[in-house]
Amino acid sequence: MTVEYPSKLYYAISEVAKITGVKAHVLRYWESEFPTLRPRKTRSGSRRYRQKDIDEILAIKKLLYEDGFKIAGARKARREQKKAGDKPVTNAPQMALGFDGLSDRERLDHVRKELGDVLEMIRALKEEKAAAPLKTRKANA
């Protein structure tokens, strides 16, 4: 996707928000979460983004919105990309479930079974918790 925007040395946060499709409050939040995103500030405190900042924002946006990373995972991926010379990181997704070679139906069955096991554990813990006060009341009587 090619983004068309005027070529300038510095961009205001509103211009960057339009160019990248990321709201201004999100850009400010990302500045606190990603050490690689540090726009310059004027004396009055307004942010001035350069082309490299816009490129960084687009890379972060791709990791978060398209690749499904969480903030911490995207931060780590950007760090690794910087080490690798800004080449995209081709790691597996943040959480590999080991469903390779299974059909959608088999995956769904596997997830249902695992969720059923978790539900059984929760019910067993509830029963133990409910039975525990009765034992302590009898011991105190």
Describe this structure in words.
The protein has a two-stranded antiparallel sheet with strand order 1-2. It has 141 residues and is mainly alpha-helical. The protein is built from 5 helices and 2 strands, in the order ααββααα. It is elongated, with a radius of gyration of 25 Å.
Task: Provide tags for this entry.
elongated, mainly alpha, Multidrug-efflux Transporter Regulator, Chain: A, Domain 2, 141 residues, 5 helices
Lay out the secondary structure.
Blueprint: H1 13-20, H2 24-33, E1 40-41, E2 47-48, H3 51-66, H4 71-83, H5 104-140
Antiparallel strand pairs: 1-2
Radius of gyration: 25 Å
The main sheet orders its strands as: 1-2
The ordered string of helix (H) and strand (E) elements is HHEEHHH
Tell me the structural class. mainly alpha
Strand-residue proportion: under 5%
What is the top-level CATH class of the largest domain?
Answer: Mainly Alpha
- Main beta sheet: strand number and arrangement? 2 strands, antiparallel
CATH topology of the largest domain: Multidrug-efflux Transporter Regulator, Chain: A, Domain 2
Total domain units: 2
As residue ranges, the low-confidence spans are: none
